[in-house]
Design brief:
This protein is of the alpha/beta class. It folds into 2 domains: about 5-140 and about 295-315, Rossmann fold, CATH 3.40.50; about 145-285 and about 320-350, Dihydrodipicolinate Reductase, domain 2. The protein contains 9 helices and 18 strands. The strands form 3 sheets. A 9-stranded mixed beta sheet has the order 16-15-14-13-7-12-11-8-17, with helices on one face. Strands 3-2-1-4-5-6 form a 6-stranded parallel beta sheet, with helices on both faces. The longest helix is centred in the last third of the chain and has 19 residues, at about 315-335. The radius of gyration is 20 Å and the shape is globular. The model has no long low-confidence stretch (mean pLDDT about 95). Bound molecules: nicotinamide-adenine-dinucleotide. Nicotinamide-adenine-dinucleotide binds near residues 53 and 73.
Length: about 350
C-alpha cells in the first residue's frame, strides 16, 4: 500500500535546495530535499503541502506537482489525513505543526533540524511522540550517508581499538543550524552514548556579540543561534566530545590505538594507526558507494512504520543532540559552568531562524 505524505513548510529543504547542490562531493547525493526524496522513494507519494505564505505555497507546489495546498497545516491534517508528514518549517516554527501532526494520528514524522529553539518545545515534542509511539527521523542526516556508515563499520571492526573521543568543528557555522549535523554524526560514530555533562563558551556570529536575554519566567535565551568557541561534552562509557576549531564539519575520532579523520563533511577520510608510541602507520580507508541520504532516511522511516522496527535516527538520538545544544547555552550564560544532564530547569531558548 502506498502511504500518503505531506510537507509542512515549502522552502529550500522541502525541495528547492537540490538546485544549490551543484558541487562535486563524495556524499552530497541528490535527491536532497524532501519532495524530490519522496518522488525517489518507493511506497510513498507526496500528495499535499502547507505553507503560511500562499504565493510560496503555490509556486512550490506547481514545481513539485502537489495538488492539495493549504495555508493552514491543521486543515491539511484534517482533510488529507496523511500517513507521513515532513516538517520543514524554520526551527522556531517547528513544535506546533509537528505536535499537531503527531496528535492527528500520522504514522511517521520526518522533521528537519535543529528540532526546535526552546527546551519547552523539545519537551512538548518528545512527550507527544512518546505518547503515540510513532517513528520519527531527523534532518541531521550524516548517519545515513555512506561515508559515515563506512567510517562506523571501520571503527566497529576494531582496527584502531575502542573509540575514546570525538573532535568536531564547523568553523563559521552556528550551534543549532550547523553543529546539529556534526554532533549527530559524532554520536553515531561513538555508538550513540548518553551525554552526562556539558561545558561551553559561545559567541555571536561574525562581528556581533552574543546577547543574553533573561525573561520574566526565569527563562534565559541567547539572541541568535550562536557560534561555538569551544565545548566539552562528557558522555557515558568514559567517552568525550569536544567542539573545537576544525573546519567544514570535519570530525576526528580518537581511538585507543589510532585516529580516524573525516575531512570536508565526509569528502575524504584518513586513518593513522599507532603501533607503538612513536610508530604510526597509515591504514587504507575503504571505498564507499554513495547514495541519497534523504532516500535512505525515508526508507528507514517506511520500514519502521511497516515492521514496527526502530529507526537509526529516532527520538532518543534527536533528544540527546538537542539537550547538548541547550546545555551549551546554559553553560555559556553561567560563565562556562559544568551543566549536568538532563537539566531539571527547562527555561533555555535561542532566538533563531
Ligand atoms: N538537513 C539539511 O541539510 C538542511 C538544509 C537546509 C535547511 N535545513 C533546515 O530546514 C528547515 C527549513 O529551512 P529552509 O532553508 O528550507 O527555510 P525556508 O525559509 O526556505 O523554508 C521554510 C518555509 O516554511 C514556511 N513556514 C514558516 N512557518 C510555517 C508554518 N507555521 N506553517 C507552514 N509553513 C511555515 C515559510 O513560509 C517557508 O516557506 C530549517 O530548520 C533548516 O535548518 C536543513
Amino acid at each position: 500500500m502506498t502511504l500518503k505524505a505531506a510537507i509542512i513548510g515549502c522552502g529550500r529543504m522541502a525541495g528547492t535546495i537540490d538546485d544549490e547542490i551543484t558541487y562535486d562531493h563524495a556524499d552530497f547525493i541528490l535527491p536532497y530535499g524532501h519532495a524530490p526524496g519522496y518522488a525517489a522513494t518507493e511506497g510513498v507519494e507526496l500528495v499535499a503541502a502547507s505553507d503560511i505564505d500562499a504565493d510560496r505555497l503555490n509556486s512550490w507546489c506547481d514545481r513539485f506537482n502537489v495538488e492539495e495546498r493549504f495555508t493552514d497545516h491543521g486543515q491539511l491534517l484534517e482533510q488529507v489525513k496523511p500517513d507521513v508528514v515532513s516538517v520543514t518549517t524554520p526551527a522556531h516554527a517547528r513544535a506546533n505543526p509537528l505536535v499537531d501532526a503527531v496528535e492527528s494520528g500520522v504514522r511517521g514524522i520526518y522533521t528537519e533540524k535543529a528540532l526546535c529553539t526552546s527546551q519547552l518545545d523539545l519537551d512538548r515534542i518528545v512527550s507527544a511522540v512518546r505518547a503515540r509511539e510513532i517513528p520519527i527521523v531527523y534532518g541531521a542526516m550524516r548517519r545515513y550517508w555512506t561515508g559515515f556508515e563506512t567510517a562506523r563499520a571501520f571503527l566497529d571492526a576494531g582496527h584502531l581499538g575502542a573509540p575514546q573521543a570525538a573532535l568536531i568543528g564547523a568553523a563559521g557555522g552556528s550551534a543549532f543550524h550547523t553543529h546539529s549535523h556534526i554532533i549527530d554524526a559524532a554520536f553515531y560514530l561513538l555508538g550513540d552514548p548518553e551525554p552526562l555533562a556539558v561545558q561551553a563558551t559561545l559567541t555571536g556570529r561574525g562581528e556581533d556579540e552574543l546577547g543574553i536575554v533573561h525573561s520574566e519566567n526565569d527563562g534565559v535565551a541567547v539572541d541568535t543561534d550562536p557560534a561555538i568557541v569551544c565545548a566539552h561534552v562528557e558522555l557515558d562509557n568514559n567517552l568525550r566530545l569536544t567542539c573545537t576549531d576544525l573546519p567544514s564539519l570535519d570530525i576526528e575520532i580518537v581511538c585507543e590505538n589510532g585516529v580516524l579523520r573525516g575531512y570536508g563533511d565526509s569528502s575524504r577520510y584518513a586513518v593513522m594507526r599507532r603501533n607503538a608510541r612513536y610508530d604510526w602507520e597509515p591504514l587504507p580507508f575503504p571505498d564507499w558507494q554513495a547514495r541519497s541520504g534523504t532516500v535512505a532516511i525515508m526508507e528507514d522511516l517506511l520500514r519502521a512504520i511497516h515492521d514496527g522496527t526502530s529507526t537509526r535516527s529516532g527520538l532518543d538520538v534527536i533528544r540527546r543532540g538537542m539537550e547538548i545544544l541547550f546545555a551549551m547555552v546554559a553553560s555559556h550564560v553561567q560563565g562556562g559552568r559544568r551543566i549536568e544532564l538532563p537539566m531539571t530547569e527547562r527555561g533555555v531558548s535561542v532566538h533563531s531562524h
